[in-house]
Amino acid sequence: DGGITQSPKYLFRKEGQNVTLSCEQNLNHDAMYWYRQDPGQGLRLIYYSQIVNDFQKGDIAEGYSVSREKKESFPLTVTSAQKNPTAFYLCATRQGSTYEQYFGPGTRLTVT
Amino acid sequence: AQKITQTQPGMFVQEKEAVTLDCTYDTSDPSYGLFWYKQPSSGEMIFLIYQGSYDQQNATEGRYSLNFQKARKSANLVISASQLGDSAMYFCAMRESQTGANNLFFGTGTRLTVIP
């Protein structure tokens, strides 16, 4: 099946621990994105990558880190420096020649 | 300033009726695009429709159409013949070309409830 997978769907962590969220795609899309969604709000961009081994900060990158070692994978690490990490995290991809982004099913992270 | 504004937190529509979800935007970029996404309770964002700023005609995709009024900076989504499965959150988003990255800016969404 072609698509975007994010695992796990629900993730629980203790405060002070780093946690890595997975995003894998087999669509052969060039660009990948990480968004955060809080209750009652729209999506906010954390990081994006347009090609392998290159990525840029979005609007709310503080407390997060990413890597893009392979075209298919764009993992997001939520570090202990992120003040309010509890949120719904969505990964998206975009083919270089088009504008629309396609989203994965999301990971709901709860930090207590 | 907000780039995307959705002023309707919630909307109700009778099944089989049409409904319009409002979206206004703010940009100085002459080349931009407007999107609508649907988010069911499962959480996944589903792409519905896209309108480019230079497109001459309003975009349509099945029961979805985008009422693009450039001078008013509005890009309202019209859903015709509403179905129970249309109940979801709907987000308007915009891309700008000037950054070169085609990143999306999202509104806060409208929750649509279809009444049987």
Protein model, in words:
- With 112 residues, chain A is mainly beta.
- Helices cover 0% and strands 50% of the residues of chain A.
- Chain A has no helices and eleven strands.
- Chain B has no helices and twelve strands.
- In chain B, strands 2, 5, 6, 10, 11 and 12 form a six-stranded mixed beta sheet that branches. In chain B, strands 3-9-8-7 form a four-stranded antiparallel beta sheet, with no helix packed on it. A two-stranded antiparallel sheet of chain B has the order 1-4.
- The model of chain B has no long low-confidence stretch (mean pLDDT 94).
- Classes of the chains: A mainly beta (112), B mainly beta (116).
- Chain A binds chain B through residues 31, 33, 40-45, 48, 50, 56, 58, 88, 90, 92, 94, 99-106, 108, and chain B through 4, 33, 35, 37, 42-47, 50, 52, 91, 93, 95, 101-104, 106-109.
Shape of chain B: globular
Roughly how many Å apart are the termini of chain B? 38 Å
- Helix-strand topology string of chain B: EEEEEEEEEEEE
Can you tell me the overall shape of chain A? globular
Q: What kind of assembly state do the chains in view correspond to?
A: heterodimer
Distance between the termini of chain A: 35 Å
Report the mean per-residue pLDDT of chain A as an integer.
Answer: 93
Briefly characterize the structure.
The complex is a heterodimer of chains A (112) and B (116). With 112 residues, chain A is an all-beta fold.
Throw out a few tags for this protein.
heterodimer; A: 112 residues; mainly beta; 7-stranded mixed β-sheet; 4-stranded antiparallel β-sheet; 11 strands; 0% helix; 50% strand; globular; B: 116 residues; 6-stranded mixed β-sheet; 12 strands
